Inverse folding.
């Protein structure tokens, strides 16, 4: 059994975005066919969700022959990551444990790759300007991945603390700038990504216009009432979050503001959406894609070609 810690994961080469996105799309198709499955998450909130929560997320990939468990913590801290995930992989035929893998980098890359895939599947053209709200781990991973995936695009970073946005932008080149006016930044963007751990909403539906894509990956970047105003809603999975997720989309569902019939799954989009009004893509975050990347990392180690440079950050 392999054990891959955070230091080792940092050296895995995940730079072949076309191959990884192809793997992700194959997994979405397997999900539609019932061959890639996420079991219902089990959440534990010992005191209050504001102070921390712990999640157990099992699943399996029949076509890849693995079953997995993602164990993750969400605990606010003054320093260090907000989440500390671990991934356990087993052979689905024998039950033999294959690996225990630190999941932090995998989780960040998985989220960014699904966002990239959603942009490609939902929008008719390639976006010219993307706004990333936030300056933390997810924002940085999205910048690194999307800059590589969209070499002609410009990126704008906004954060409630401008110094944090400036610090993040300084890690990249001239294609990444900072905005101090959120409403104007939203108006000028083709894609808006909510990538913060904000406890109170900061984005408003009324700022969006037709042709835009809003990608919701946080919990409270937009209020449930504003999310319910989107006529066009796409999700990586809708059932998985209905019972327990604190994401605004699922809160709106439990409040009766959104019917399940209004939400389309990403894997059902045969052609890009050409619709009036803005489109929202909600990324619940599916552990099956963590398992895809964990297996990919394991295969790199087994081939002895794991120590690449990854995605360039500048």
């Amino acid at each position: 059994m392999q054990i891959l810690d955070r230091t080792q994961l940092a050296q895995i080469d995940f730079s072949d975005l076309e191959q990884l996105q192809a793997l992700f799309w194959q997994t979405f198709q397997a999900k539609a066919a019932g061959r890639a499955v996420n079991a219902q998450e089990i959440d534990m909130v010992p005191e209050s969700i504001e102070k921390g929560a712990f999640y157990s997320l099992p699943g399996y990939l029949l076509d890849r022959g693995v079953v997995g468990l993602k164990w993750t913590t969400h605990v606010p801290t003054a320093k260090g990551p907000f989440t500390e995930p671990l991934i356990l992989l087993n052979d689905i035929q024998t039950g033999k444990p294959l690996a225990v893998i630190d999941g932090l980098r995998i989780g960040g890359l998985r989220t960014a790759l699904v966002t990239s895939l959603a942009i490609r599947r939902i929008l008719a053209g390639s976006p010219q300007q993307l706004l990333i709200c936030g300056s933390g781990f997810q924002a940085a991973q999205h910048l690194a991945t999307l800059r590589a995936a969209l070499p002609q695009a410009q990126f704008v970073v906004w954060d409630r603390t401008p110094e944090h946005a400036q610090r993040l932008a300084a890690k990249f080149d001239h294609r990444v700038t900072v905005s101090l006016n959120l409403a104007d930044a939203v108006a000028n963007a083709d894609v808006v990504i909510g990538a913060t751990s904000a406890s109170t909403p900061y984005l408003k539906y009324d700022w969006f216009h037709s042709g835009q894509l809003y990608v919701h990956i946080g919990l409270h970047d937009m209020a449930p009432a504003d999310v319910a105003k989107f006529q066009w809603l796409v999700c990586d999975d809708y059932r998985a979050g209905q019972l327990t997720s604190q994401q605004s989309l699922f809160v709106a569902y439990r409040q009766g503001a959104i019917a399940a019939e209004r939400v389309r799954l990403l894997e059902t989009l045969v052609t890009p959406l050409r619709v009036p009004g803005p489109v929202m893509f909600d990324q619940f975050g599916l552990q099956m894609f963590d398992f895809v990347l964990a297996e990919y990392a394991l295969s790199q180690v087994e081939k002895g070609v794991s120590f690449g440079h990854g995605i360039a950050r500048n």
Q: What stands out?
A: The two ends are 35 Å apart (CA to CA). DSSP finds nine helices and 15 strands in the chain.
